[in-house]
């Protein structure tokens, strides 16, 4: 007959056999993401679990199943490229961070955050790099270049404060929350910028004048990246305000905000700037101006849509890291000397803790290492897929070990610890989500004094603020005062913002 | 010095030179999408323009600029693969169609829609295929197989009713709107299913028993695909209702709905079913049950987020088609005989109009050919990027011509035509967006009688419905009545739905 019923039935779908592998894996991956959400929700009751650990665990479990089914050939269903991470997964996470940050708190503590985030990361980077150079000599781990050691410093300086933030309550302990949050973002950005600078830098000739220029360039990069993000955010606010976008369709407003946010990131990449800083400040400007110019429906939509995208991207990363941790190829070249690998991992963990302790009072919040560290490590130590060099393999497996250990162990201990250190407030005023008039964070032992900076200056508190915080708070408040004046007089009339009411589409 | 200031500055960004091309093109493409939205908004005032035509025009303009800058080498910045279309762009468009459709109207007119959509497409397919076989013989267009002719029939049976829907008002002419909309979706689905069947089918031996089995398989495919979509939609509704997802986080609800909708599409592809039908019915079930189970914020978010995704995907497609229309390579092999190409395009346009006229009273709404036709044509006639065969080149250029011509010419004429045929209602009751009690669509000349089917049966109207519509309406109403009973008694208690109030997260 020359005709096969089965093949017709098969043929009615759209996929050819060559696509089948990718359709398989995408389907499985999407199903696992759904499972993570449902299981993460069920485990929410158990206060010591969080989404990241759930996703890691499910990823590990799936990895085991795939390992058994493929008889040890492979443990993952999608091959991770750090391009996916930097082009698709990181922008929504960072943009959402900027969009949801409480700007008043963030800018009032700007100096503290920059001090902790940027300079702290540099200190941590120095300690980890130097420590690795000194301590790795005693272990037999193959040849690593000076650039590799510096990269290790940058990789393990990128903290992951997601676990801590999931436990803290923005309304109960606003100061602590904004410090942990802001420090985390600035820290990530600094690590990535440092890492990229190291990768491109000619490390064979380092003199003090070159080092000085390097720092100058770093500052220039920070400034231009921030400026680009602010400009694109303002442009978006101006367009939406001027054209009354919402008049015809709210979807157009939402689409324009998402596309322009993404555009800011891509433009920064195009001009060799730091996309992460650009998109972060674009998020801040969009939430300060653009968001107030759109219709009520668009406001609700953007707020939740951005949070959802960020949420999915985060689960995606942890799920992948869990699956990839079991990749047999990487462990094979390590397995002949398990002691070395354990040694390297322990040294790195120790250095992480020392480096972190050296500069920051909110020590615990930054002990976890997560997705950014993984992505940077892949970038540095796997050139074309998997590495053959022994030193590189050890670095990858050690990164996985540190990420898994710190996320699971430190992550699981975070909730009990925070509960122990921060007793729940007696009367939480949940009707006023932003800027509660009397924050209940007197008892924040990590920070000395958690009260509102303005209250500090009125002198009506019985606790004496530490001199460091006083020093940092006073100029910031002055700047904030003039900024508010400038904002009201020039910026808001031009770009909208809180109080600007968009007419409802008829 | 061995040190270059410029290279350090350049190196601080994340992109290596090899990525640069893709960062370039993505940035430009995102910028063009933004431009389309802004310009589309500005042109909204001119009632004969619409988003599709704007995107096409901007795409054409960009194509010209790129052509001039590359000196005729290339006209597009991204290479279109129909995989992008079928895996990323089509699912949100079709899901949103199912999600936003007015279910009551859709199911009341279910028989009419199926008759117009599915059987009408088959008639159109037959006419265009046979017509092409007969008429193309006289033109010198190189060798085409019988499968190619059948594919041409399927390609040009996929209508694009976006232009028409942009002009019609769902509240003013609900019946006409739901018919045009439903017919468009079913029509697209039928074309794609037909097309895939043709591509896989051994066309050398066609007997009547094989043809019968083929139809049987087609029906089986329709049924199983629909069932899969319904099941996944119900599962999602059940999970969200049972677990009170919104208690902890609204973002989780939104993420789960998006991921499960996408999962339904990918699972259908995995099982060689029709993803387009699955995701359409998943959208219907989700809007009927799931959507009512989530928190108020999630409702607003999902409604607008889905619409936005669909909107961006549509602009993306038209922008690309505009850019690709100028691709010089395709036109080169055609340019030695421009008469043939014009002849083929004219024949196809004529066949499209005849095929459409043969089965459908809402003739105009389905004359436009759009993105689906383009994607199918690329799939059939370009195997590895660009085609060298003359016949294939002619078919691609003719498809582009037909799509451009029908979208621009018919599209521009739609608004004046609709205005002429459908005078605006005198007192539009805009406070009741869904199911207005007295629709003002008496004057719909295309449909004989535009009144509410229930009003028809009460006999209180002076217009006599056509016998065809009466025949189709009565059994559908009976089915609808029993469905409502079943829904209230069994489905709603299980899966939620309208009236189910999710507790607000504390």
Automatic annotation (TrEMBL), chains A, B:
One function term, GO molecular function aspect: sodium:proton antiporter activity
Keywords: Ion transport, Membrane, Potassium, Potassium transport, Sodium, Sodium transport, Transmembrane, Transmembrane helix, Transport
Keyword hit for Ion transport: yes
Classification via InterPro entries: Cation/H_exchanger_CPA1, Cation/H_exchanger_TM, NaH_exchanger
Localization terms from the record: Membrane
Membrane topology recorded in Swiss-Prot or TrEMBL: Multi-pass membrane protein
A Pfam family matched in the record: Na_H_Exchanger
Transmembrane segments: 20-43, 55-72, 84-101, 113-137, 218-240, 261-286, 306-326, 347-366, 393-413
Catalytic reaction equation(s): K(+)(in) + H(+)(out) = K(+)(out) + H(+)(in); Na(+)(in) + H(+)(out) = Na(+)(out) + H(+)(in)
UniProt superkingdom: Eukaryota
GO BP term, pick one: regulation of intracellular pH
PANTHER family: SODIUM/HYDROGEN EXCHANGER (PTHR10110), SODIUM_HYDROGEN EXCHANGER (PTHR10110:SF193)
Stated name of the protein: Cation/H+ exchanger transmembrane domain-containing protein
